[in-house]
Design a protein that fits this description.
8-stranded parallel barrel, 26% strand, 428 residues, single chain, 2 domains
Length: 428
């Protein structure tokens, strides 16, 4: 295991977390290289029975430049949703042919840049996007390889804010309209439409919704072929969940691989997969220090130096992250709130919960924070962007420095507010 207690101190691989805190300060994300390798290997092994496939890392989960080349070494390309993620994938050594551009709000400028980069394919979300992509490709004398994203109208049985296939979802073409839309887009001159894409949500641990979505996708593949379309690819998305609570199950990736092999038998397509969270969530923790323990009724407040701007998931959707003391007092626990210093009541990591007893100055971690942690961080309250560190065996290094808000987002006053080097009076 990459995170374990040794001699009463929590280690990341061979490095005690207090050593990292002394060197880099807190709060800080700390990633374990071995945990990333292990997750990637388990996913690759689970999909081994599927001969024709393309593995794509969902860059949005964590775009750190150490992750992309590591996963490329396991055969992963990249699933991107913005021009910035295109740059991250290219900087990480991902070949253009191994990049798929997904996402609902692609701009014309981004689509043009992605076409110019020669990426593998687009996942088209709606008719107008397909029309614009066709025009951009025609203007370049090329055809854009693409898949049509379909909303199979299957409840992923996960949190509403990370479900993407409900009836009111903004993503994809609703299942009843999919065949008609495919006919329409396939006729456009600038598109090389090759098949379908589905993605029903994130943090999925029960495989039955995925199975239902894939069955619906298989029905569409057969129907489109009957209508004369050449279907060569199907993107089955990502969404496999991990265990965030002690004792709670994550997705069984081996069972998922076996299920996919059964459900897609006879499709005669190349299958695409887009894991994100599954690969990186358990490779990272957010290291934090207790600032104060404030008395409260009936429970005290453990105030830490990490905040919702560093790890937004609990504030966004009440996500659970285990709170673990770096030097736990033997068998001592108490019920407490764990909160950050940001001036929002929502800046809370745990409502009254039994946690390791901690005191002012103690170190602790918020576990399973490698996905959608640093990737979603902000400078709210003019707080610095959190730093990131990597551990590999007995060595560690800084992967990104703590960046003051003024540097992360440089701002300046309007020209008319400064006269001869002096700030003009407000209101003039």
């Amino acid at each position: 295991m990459s995170f374990q207690m040794r001699d009463g101190v929590l280690h990341v691989e061979g490095v005690p977390l207090p050593v990292i805190a002394d060197a880099a300060g807190t709060p800080a994300y700390v990633y374990a290289a071995t945990a990333l390798h292990d997750a990637a290997r388990s996913f690759v092994d689970a999909l081994a029975p599927i001969a024709r496939k393309q593995l794509l890392y969902a860059v949005k989960a964590n775009p750190h430049p150490a992750i992309l080349p590591t996963l490329a070494g396991f055969g992963f390309g990249a699933d991107i949703v913005s021009g910035g993620e295109l740059q991250a994938a290219q900087a990480g050594g991902i070949a253009p042919a191994d990049i798929v551009y997904s996402g609902l709000g692609k701009t014309r400028e981004e689509m043009g840049a992605v076409l110019d980069a020669g990426i593998g394919r687009f996942n088209i979300e709606h008719a107008r996007e397909g029309e614009v992509l066709s025009a951009l490709a025609c203007a370049r004398g090329m055809r854009a390889t693409a898949l049509l994203r379909v909303n199979p109208l299957v409840d992923a049985q996960t949190h509403a804010k990370i479900s993407t296939a409900l009836t009111d979802s903004k993503f994809g073409i609703p299942y009843p309209e999919a065949i008609g839309m495919y006919h329409r887009l396939a006729a456009l001159p600038g598109l090389n439409l090759q098949g379908l894409a589905v993605h029903i949500g994130s943090q999925i641990t029960d495989l039955s919704p995925l199975q239902a979505a894939y069955r619906r996708a298989g029905t569409l593949v057969a129907a489109l072929r009957t209508d004369g379309h050449c279907i060569t690819h199907a993107d089955l998305g990502g969404g496999l969940g991990v265990s965030y609570r002690a004792g709670a199950p994550g997705a069984d990736v081996a069972a998922c691989g076996a299920m996919v092999a059964r459900e897609t038998e006879g499709w005669d397509v190349t299958l695409l997969f887009e894991p994100g969270r599954f690969l990186v969530a358990q490779a990272g923790v957010l290291l934090t220090r207790v600032l104060w323990v404030k008395p409260g009724q009936p429970h005290p407040f453990v105030i830490v130096d990490a905040a919702m701007n560093d790890l937004a998931r609990p504030a966004l959707y009440d996500a659970w992250h285990e709170f673990i003391a770096v030097r736990p007092r033997d068998r001592e626990h108490f019920a407490a709130h764990v909160v950050g210093p940001v001036c929002e009541s929502g800046d809370s990591f745990a409502h009254p919960r039994a946690i390791d007893r901690v005191e002012e100055g103690d170190l602790a971690v918020l576990a399973t924070a490698g996905a959608y942690g640093a990737a979603m961080a902000s400078t709210y309250n003019a707080r610095a962007l959190v730093s990131e560190l990597w551990v590999d065996g007995d060595r560690f290094d800084v992967g990104s420095d703590r960046m003051p808000a003024a540097l992360a987002r440089p701002q300046r006053v309007p020209r008319w507010m400064a006269v001869s080097g002096q700030r003009a009076a407000v209101g003039r």
